[in-house]
């Protein structure tokens, strides 16, 4: 339509997601979102709603994008649980090492600020963390661990995964992050060997 600026909704959501990911929810203003997306304030509000509504969409987008990758990585856990968990961590390590993306994890950052978030955003961040635990638990249960062991490793692997994101944001080297992963992988492999 002549005279009306068109925009790519997916590109705008990705730009907003990266802005929130880089600065965090609290430190991102609507003006920051306007600069990031190239949309004026009124276009942001009319297209996405208020800042909370936009952040929820970005958090969902992030969780879905990486959730699909984690699910694919864990898909072979019934046959090769150690390789599947290593592939799970590889998703995080690849994301962390991508210079085009901010350090850290949007879900982990959001979870760390739950006390200052609105109830809806806090609940969504906690839901995203819970989904990761459930995904891991299901994969590890199918990989010869008992329910108790699968639950314990799911909690541990999810915690290590979130720690990688926080550590990367604090400047921990890729080699150190890989060493953290290797300790978890070795513990899982040892537990599985006890079942053989």
UniProtKB/TrEMBL annotation:
One of its GO terms (molecular function) is DNA binding. Residues 6-66 form the HTH tetR-type domain. Residues 29-48 bind DNA. The keyword Lyase does not apply. Keywords: DNA-binding, Transcription, Transcription regulation. It comes from the Bacteria. The keyword rRNA processing does not apply. This is HTH-type transcriptional repressor ComR. It comes from Actinomadura rubteroloni.
């Amino acid at each position: 339509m002549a005279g009306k600026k068109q925009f790519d909704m997916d590109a705008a959501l990705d730009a907003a997601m990266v802005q929130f990911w880089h600065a965090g929810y609290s430190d991102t203003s609507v003006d920051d979102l306007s600069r990031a997306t190239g949309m004026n304030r009124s276009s942001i509000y009319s297209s996405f709603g208020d800042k909370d509504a936009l952040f929820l969409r970005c958090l969902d987008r992030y969780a879905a994008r990486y959730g699909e990758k984690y699910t694919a990585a864990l898909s072979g856990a019934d046959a090769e649980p150690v390789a599947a968990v290593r592939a799970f961590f590889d998703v995080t390590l690849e994301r962390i090492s991508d210079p085009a993306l901010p350090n850290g994890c949007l879900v982990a950052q959001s979870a760390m600020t739950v006390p200052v978030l609105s109830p809806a955003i806090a609940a969504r961040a906690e839901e995203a963390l819970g989904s990761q635990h459930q995904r891991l638990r299901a994969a590890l249960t199918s990989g010869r661990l008992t329910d108790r062991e699968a639950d314990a490793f799911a909690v541990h692997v999810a915690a290590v995964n979130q720690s990688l994101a926080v550590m990367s944001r604090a400047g921990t080297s890729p080699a150190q992050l890989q060493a953290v992963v290797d300790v978890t992988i070795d513990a899982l492999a040892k537990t599985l060997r006890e079942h053989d």
